[in-house]
Design a protein that fits this description.
The complex is a heterodimer of chains A (about 210) and B (about 230). Chain A is mainly alpha-helical. Chain A has a single domain, classed as RNA polymerase sigma factor, region 2, helix turn helix motif (Rna Polymerase Sigma Factor, Chain: A, Orthogonal Bundle). Chain A is about 70% helix and about 0% strand. Chain A has nine helices and no strands. The model of chain A is unreliable at about 1-20 and about 125-135 (pLDDT under 50). With about 230 residues, chain B is an all-alpha fold. Chain B folds into two domains: about 5-35, no CATH class; about 45-230. Chain B is elongated and about 75 Å long. Classes of the chains: A mainly alpha (about 210), B mainly alpha (about 230). Chains A and B meet through helix 2, helix 3, helix 4, helix 6 and helix 7 of A and helix 1 and helix 2 of B.
């Protein structure tokens, strides 16, 4: 099921992209052609967004660094599955999302196996909380939402992907993404409304 | 607070730039450099779907020709067109979803579970429309034979499909297993429709259609085995 880079064969020259194709797609095609400069440029272009994506998922910066590295290694292993003319970001985020899910699964398994680890994790989480950076505001804002809704909003807001692209990245349909966004907004409206009314009541009492 | 306010709040929160240490990015680039070679991208979806259809068609038709096209011969023209067109269309949809489940970031038009259920329901409707012989004879023995024949021919279709798409990556293996099972099950049903001349309504509604859920179950089990054996991509 896993396909790796085919080696030792002559491949046709990298196809020229039509005008209008994004720079990311061009970089990706050159990366598939074995161009190291394009690979480096792609890493520099996409990594800040990806890192943000991991940080916003209530992950510490050091964890986000690890996940970022793991994501690029997987991207590298399966780079042949990107098809020229398809959007790059949904493909990248589909893999990043999978890396994150794997990471949480492993963490859960470890927690179940080793009861004592729970205490250590708490300590680590508290320690890491201090390291969290610019993703804090968004993470706090989205914290009340379920995982699937939070993920969709992050992709829409952090990467600026369209509904169609988010649907591709999450392997779901556009209708399903719209529904998640709608529910997320509804929940946020309730949350923010209630916190504002609490603030209002607090002000009146003062 | 309305949606615009929430969008603005989200936008402001998302505006904060995150920086990644240049050293980390350099480490990543250095890590991939030694294995950076030209790769051949996967073929386009329509090419892979066509190949899947050829596999499914070859198995169903080949075995049908070998065992005899008794069912096909017994049907009238309208039945043939309606049943085989439905099977062909469903196989195209299932094949496309199977391919898309093996390529990250692909467009999904229908969830895997919904696809399996919808395909089963649509086939039940078509079969119920055309087969009106409600008396039953050798219901279990004849039915089990058809079910086993259908599933035994669906399994190689699924395996060959999996082999065809082996360069792909199933990020969600269960979903890939369901779509693979649906596609393979449809090929198994196509074979039964070509070969089986038992037109009793219950026989077809129960045993022929049952090939689909059994194939899906086999696909899911296969996917779970792979999932347990390998840590993702």
């Amino acid at each position: 099921m896993q396909g790796y880079a085919n080696t030792g064969k002559d491949y046709p020259p990298v196809p020229l992209l039509m005008p209008g194709d994004s720079e990311l797609e061009l970089l990706m095609v050159r990366y598939q052609g074995g161009d190291f400069a394009a690979a480096t440029a792609l890493i520099h272009r996409v990594s800040p967004q990806l890192h943000r994506f991991f940080v916003a998922q209530l992950t510490s910066r050091s964890h986000a660094d690890d996940l970022l590295q793991e994501t690029w290694l997987r991207i590298h292993r399966v780079r042949h599955t990107y098809r020229p003319s398809e959007p790059v970001l949904p493909w990248v985020y589909a893999i990043a999302r999978h890396v994150r899910v794997d990471h949480f699964r492993k963490a859960m398994r470890t927690q179940i196996r080793e009861k004592r680890l729970a205490e250590i994790t708490d300590v680590a989480a508290n320690t890491n909380a201090g390291q969290r950076g610019p993703g804090d505001d968004l993470a706090k804002l989205l914290a009340p939402l379920p995982e699937s809704q939070r993920e969709v909003l992050e992709m829409l807001k952090i990467t600026g992907m369209s509904l169609e692209e988010v649907a591709r990245a999450t392997s779901s349909t556009v209708g399903s993404v719209k529904q998640k966004v709608h529910r997320a907004y509804k929940k946020l409206r309730e949350q923010l409304g209630s916190s504002e009314s609490r603030k209002g009541r607090g002000g009146e009492q003062l | 607070m309305n949606e615009r306010d929430i969008s603005e709040a989200l936008g402001k929160a998302a505006e904060a730039r995150d920086s990644v240490e240049p050293a980390l990015l350099q480490r990543i680039a250095d890590a991939i450099q030694p294995t950076l070679q030209a790769v051949r991208p996967l073929p386009r979806t329509w090419v892979l779907v066509s190949a899947l259809m050829l596999i499914g068609g070859a198995v169903a038709l080949g075995e049908g020709l070998r065992a005899g096209l008794f069912g096909f011969a017994k049907m009238d023209v309208i039945e043939r067109v309606a049943i085989f067109f439905t099977l062909f269309w469903l196989a195209c949809v299932a094949g496309t979803e199977f391919v898309n489940s093996m390529v990250p970031g692909s467009r999904r038009r229908i969830a895997a579970g919904k696809l399996g259920v919808s395909a089963g329901l649509l086939l039940l409707c078509v079969f119920a429309l055309f087969f009106r012989d409600y008396h039953t004879e050798h219901f279990v023995s004849a039915g089990l034979l058809c079910l086993v024949t259908g599933v035994l021919h669906a399994i190689p279709v699924g395996l060959m499909g999996w082999l065809l798409l082996r360069r792909g990556v199933a990020l969600n293996r269960i979903s890939a297993g369901i779509t693979a099972g649906t596609f393979a099950g449809l090929a198994g049903i196509a074979l039964l429709e070509l070969h089986c001349a038992n037109f009793q309504a219950l026989h077809i509604l129960v045993w022929h259609t049952a090939v689909l859920p059994v194939s899906v179950a086999v696909g899911v089990i296969w996917a779970r085995v792979l999932q347990d054996g390998k840590p993702g991509t």
